[in-house]
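Give me the 3D structure for glutathione transferase.
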Amino acid sequence: MDARTRALEVYVDLMSQPCRALLLFLRHNHIPHTVKNVLLHRGEQKTPEFTKLNPMQKVPVIVDNGFVLTESDAILKYLATTYKVPHHWYPQDPKIRARINEYMSWHQTNTRPHAARVFILEVLMPRMTGNPPDAKKVERALADLSETLDKLESVFLKQQPFLCGDEITLADLLAICELMQPLGSGRDVLKDRPKLDAWRERIKSAMKDTFDEVHVYLYRLRDKARL
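Predicted structure for glutathione transferase (227 residues):
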C-alpha cells in the first residue's frame, strides 16, 4: 500500500508545541491525515479512551493503520523515514542525521523546558490562580532561556541557515515551535536576536502559509495579551 493512502490519525492540541511541529510537517508535506483534537485544558487526555491509546496521557499521538506511536521525536522520525517526503527533513547521511539527533536530544532539556517555563509563568499560572505573573520567577526563567538562545546561536546555528546545515530539518521545526510559545503572553523572545530572528524568517519562508495556519491559536492569545 502506498504510504500516502494509509489511514493516519493524529491526536493533537494546537496549543502544544510538539503538536504544532507535527502538523507543520504533515501539512507542508501533504501527508493525508485525520486530526483528532485532544483539548488539554479540558483534561481530555485523561479520558479512559485516550488513556488506552497513550497511558502517559500526553499528545501528540499517531495511529498509522493500527500502529500507535507516542513522543514527538519518535513520531517525526518515523514519518520522515516511512512516508515519501524530501530527504532533507531527516537525511540518510549518518553524520547529518546524527546532528539532527544531537539537537533533538539537547532540545528536551534545554529549548523545550526553558521556553515553556516562560509561557507557564506568564500565561498558564495567572489563568489558573487569578494572580499576576511572579516577576522574580519570570526573570529567572528568562535568564535560563537566554542561555539556551546563546547556545542555539553559537553551537547549533553558527553561520549556517538552519540548525543542522544548509536545509531545514526536523530539528528546526521542534525548536521554532517551542520558541514561538512565549508569544502567548505577547513576548517575542527572538525579536532582539537578529541571527535567530532571521532563522525564524527562513523557516516561515520554507513552510509558507502553513506556518501561520498552525500558529493561529497562539496568535490569538498574543493579540489578547496586547489589549
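The chain has a mean pLDDT of 96. Let me know if you want a second pass.
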